[in-house]
Amino acid sequence: MPSSSWKHISKALEKIYDFSPNSVLDIGIGFGKWGFLLREYLDVWQGRYNKTEWRIKIDGIEIFEPYILDTHRLLYDTILVGDAREVISKVGCYDLIIIGDVLEHLPKPDALLLIEQAVQKGKVILVNLPLGVWEQGELFDNPHEKHISTWTIGDLEHHNICSHDVFRLIDGREFILLEIDGLNKI
To answer: pTM (2 decimals)?
Structure first.
């Protein structure tokens, strides 16, 4: 769904605030949660309330154009519409890349390749990912919402993981927030 659990937000924001990125790519913007939060804590909290004063570059990739609302267009500098597996080759480098609840919508080999592509483009990559089976079919007339791969922590061990935090929902399902060190050291 174009939204995800709230449990990891404070931990992710703490990491993001500590990174203090000047540029962010949000892969799979969905409802735009990260656009709002990034703009608020990286610009507004720095005294830059008006758009003309914003300094942080926040771009996004979204595969399903009907999700993009006027608020997204206000908060994101650039939104690229398309499949992240193809679009990521067309973007520059970023201090931070967020891949939030995207990988489970891809075949596992494609998802792992997307991580590798992000590692080439970002200094730090934050990945939010459900662990185990999370049944989900098409939602909101979006065929891309279907979950087609399942994950364990072991599936990601060969990446340069700096930290990971596992969160559990009340129904027992778990998801992970991974911090991966990228190769982009601009």
So the answer is: 0.84
